[in-house]
Amino acid sequence: MTTTDTIETRPDVLYLGNPVLFVTTRSPEGQVNLAPFSSMWTLGDTMVLGVSCGSRTGMNLAAGGDVVVNVAGESLWPAAEAMAESTGLHPDLDTRAVRPDYDPDKFATTGLTEVPSLDVDVPRIAECPMQIEGRVLRETRAQAGHFWIVEAKVLHVHVHSELVDPETARFLPEQWRPLLYTFRHYRAASRTLAVSKRARLAAQSRSSANTVSGSSDRDQLRSHSQMTRAGMPRRA
Ligand SMILES: Cc1cc2nc3c(=O)[nH]c(=O)nc-3n(C[C@H](O)[C@H](O)[C@H](O)COP(=O)(O)O)c2cc1C
After folding, report:
1. Is the CB of 21 under 6 A from ligand 1?
2. I want to staple 33 with a disulfide (CB 3.0 to 4.6 A). Which of 44, 88, 129, 175 is the partner?
3. Which residue's alpha carbon is at the smallest distance from atom 21 of ligand 1?
4. What average pLDDT does this structure show over 216-235?
5. Which residues fall within 8 angstroms of residue 132, CB to CB, at 6 or more apart?
6. Can you give the pLDDT at residue 186?
């Protein structure tokens, strides 16, 4: 048991250990941008992002563009660092001069690979172990107009194949190695402490549902990958 004494402190940031996300968006002029973010939560098929209004990403989302949230794995911290001090914003909004930190092609800078999405006109990033396609529903200004709270609907979740059990088609949390941003340090979180009661109950109810319907998770995975190979319309 560690101490229960407390000392009041004020960390520079309250990044408690959020996954690092490479967020891809497209500007109204059609230019693709990507940038690292970490303020996100999800519930059901809703994801909520906290994005600075002064960023290219924030402007693209506020202009009504779609989004792909690419969740970075542990090995991708150098790519996050390569983009940390640059922007897809051109030019400076006040002076109209080209910003010194302007980077028009962060895919080239980072060496990351674009792959097309199924239903949004924004690319995914092949190297990211999870890629979430989202449709932006609304943005709300927060903290005296400094950042957007962006709400998006999850359309598709793509994961690297080694993260899915080939027998059951279920996602394998033990294989998940997200890169975390913790008080501005890149950290890993790879150890499972326990499987929750809720996870066990969900597995039980899935297995009874499969018995009743006769259609297994694996059948559903097969039909999804056939659809993906056959090519889906880019936009819903
Ligand atoms: C690991 C990491 C996490 C970040 N998280 C956020 C965030 O959650 N929200 C935000 O507004 N900026 C965040 N930033 C800063 C943006 O990446 C930065 O403002 C970037 O220049 C935006 O690029 P853009 O103008 O091309 O969109 C983060 C930076 C790093 C390196």
Report:
1. no
2. 88
3. 87
4. 44
5. 47, 68, 69, 70, 71, 154, 156, 157, 158
6. 98
The rounded distance, in Å, linking the Cα atoms of 226 and 86 is: 39
Query: Percent of the chain, pLDDT > 70?
Result: 87
Please state the pTM of the whole predicted model.
Answer: 0.88
Q: Among all chains, which residue has been given the structure tokens 């693709």?
A: 32
Does 24 sit in the ligand 1 pocket, CB within 6 Å? Answer: no
Domains of the chain from N-terminus onward? 16-195 (2.30.110.10)
Ligand 1 centroid to 61 CA: how many Å? Answer: 14
Calpha distance 13→184 (Å, rounded): 8
Ligand 1 atom nearest to 49, measured from its CA: 8
pLDDT, tens digit, 9 for 90 and up, residues 118-138: 999 999 999 999 999 999 999
